[in-house]
Each structure stands twice: as structure tokens, then as C-alpha cells.
Amino acid sequence: MADPPADTSAQPDASINHAAALAYWSSNPPTVNSMLGGHPQLSRIDLQSSANFLAKLRRSSRTHPPGKPLARAVDCGAGIGRVTLGFLAKVVEVVDVVEPVEKFTRELVAGEGRGLKAVGKIGEVFNVGLEEWVPADDTYDLVWNQWCLGHLTDAQLVEYFRRCRGALVKGGWIVVKENMSTDLEERDVFDEVDNSVTRTDGKFRTLFKQCGLKIVATEVQRGFPKELYPVRVYALQPDG
Ligand SMILES: C[S@@+](CC[C@H](N)C(=O)[O-])C[C@H]1O[C@@H](n2cnc3c(N)ncnc32)[C@H](O)[C@@H]1O
């Protein structure tokens, strides 16, 4: 008997299973190598580009011009705090952290980040998934999301972005830095290894619009190996 036709109506994000994703990440050691899927050498150029991107945003900001550090940011899906330690803590007074895998945040606050935690530079640590995290309104100058949003379904992402929009202070930014699907049919792609979805640029733009966010700057990460997914960073602000 012939196989039934593939169900092309099923969306890739329907395969997301949070328990499986957490099991995958919990089985990984708390290292930069595992945060970057075996490409630890990319961390430096990634962090430098992120710092340049934020500096550019601040140069065109009336509310957050260059000069003193930003008051408060949050590193979302932070892992072991690679972004917190290598970038955010250098340009922000207090950095909160959201990360569901406790083993990773334990490494951050007891390891390299111990001194920063002791002086309050690393603020609150929330050990929950972003789909459950409810930030306080009017709190953050910067909400940084990197290489973690593929763990949320489209519907969860829209709700999450709406909460983040409310959590921004006036003139603040939500930043999204993620791999982009290069699927020839422009579909999102489900990754069975870490149980996440790699979205297309078009999908991200549709989701941003749905939750009332506008793109105020975006660029493609330069200097990464061609065989990897392209990485794009977006800065978002409430639309109106
Ligand atoms: C590829 S690592 C990136 C870590 C960090 N953002 C960085 O750039 O170094 C993905 C992280 O997402 C976390 N994660 C998995 N499911 C998540 C969820 N539902 N909400 C937030 N983070 C999640 C994993 O535990 C892991 O720390």
C-alpha cells in the first residue's frame, strides 16, 4: 500500500515539546561550546557585533543616548550567561537573567559571574521558560533574546513579545538575534536535536507586526562561516 501523503498543513512549531527541549539542554555541559553548538570561536565576534549594534541604536536615541550605562536589561534564554558576562554587564547597571535550566544559571552565579552577582550587577535570576515568564511593566531598557526563541511556538512568542512590550521603559528596545531558516520554500524548520524551530525572516516580521512591534534597526551578522545558518539581529520598539 502506498504511504499516505505528508501532512504539509502541520506547522513546524507544532512539534515543539518543552520537556524534550529541557531534557536536551540539561544533558549539555555548562560551557560556551555547548551554548554555541560546537562553535565557541564565534562568541567573540558575536559579542563584539552585538556591542556595536547597541552602540548604533543609542547614537540615534533621544531617551538612551551614549554616555552612561543603561539602567536595567534582561538576558532571555541566557544559558550560562555568555551574553550577560561578555557584553551586557559591560554596558548596563543591572542585568536580570531568564533561563529554565538551573544548572546553567548556577554556573553563572557561582562561577565566572560570582563577583558580579555579589555586587548586584547580575540582578534577579528567573529559572523559567520564556513562555511562562511574566516581567514587571516598565522595567527594562533592553530585553535581549538570543538563540532561544525557537523553543517557543508562534502563539507563545506573540504572547511573550506582548509582555515584553509592556516591560519596556519609554525608548527601550527588544532585541532578537536568531538563526534564519534558508529553506528553499521559505518554511520554518524544526530541529529534532534541540527541539526548536528555526524561523524565516518573513515569519519573524509577521510575528513582530502581530504584537504591535516595529523594527527600528536590523542587520545580518557578518564573519560567520557560510555553512552555518545566517544570523539576523532586530531591534524592536512598540509601534505607536
Ligand atoms: C543555544 S543556547 C543560547 C544561550 C545564550 N542565549 C547564548 O547566546 O549564549 C539556548 C538556551 O535556550 C534555553 N532554553 C530552552 N528552552 C527555553 C525556553 N522555553 N525559554 C527560554 N530559554 C530556553 C536553553 O536552556 C539554552 O540555555
Structure explained in plain terms:
This is Alpha N-terminal protein methyltransferase 1. It comes from Coniosporium apollinis (strain CBS 100218). With 240 residues, the chain is an alpha/beta fold. The chain has one domain: Rossmann fold (3-Layer(aba) Sandwich). It is 32% helix and 25% strand. The strands form two sheets. It has a seven-stranded mixed β-sheet with strand order 3-2-1-4-5-9-8, sandwiched between helices. Bound molecules: S-adenosylmethionine.
The number of helical runs is: 8
Strand content: 25-35%
CATH fold category name: Rossmann fold
**What sequence of helices (H) and strands (E) makes up the elements?**
HHHEHEHHEEHEEEHEE
Number of domains: 1
Task: Give the overall average pLDDT.
Answer: 96
User: Whole-number radius of gyration?
Assistant: 18 Å
CATH architecture grouping: 3-Layer(aba) Sandwich
CATH class bucket: Alpha Beta
How many strands appear in the DSSP assignment? Answer: 9
Biggest beta sheet summary: 7 strands, mixed
Choose one word for the global shape: globular
CATH H-level superfamily: Vaccinia Virus protein VP39
Helix content: 25-40%
Uncertain spans, ≥5 residues at pLDDT below 50? none
Strand order of the largest sheet: 3-2-1-4-5-9-8
InterPro entries: MeTrfase_NTM1, SAM-dependent_MTases_sf
Enzyme class: transferase
GO cellular component, one term: cytosol
Family: Belongs to the methyltransferase superfamily. NTM1 family.
Quick structural summary:
With 240 residues, the protein is α/β, with parallel strands linked by helices.
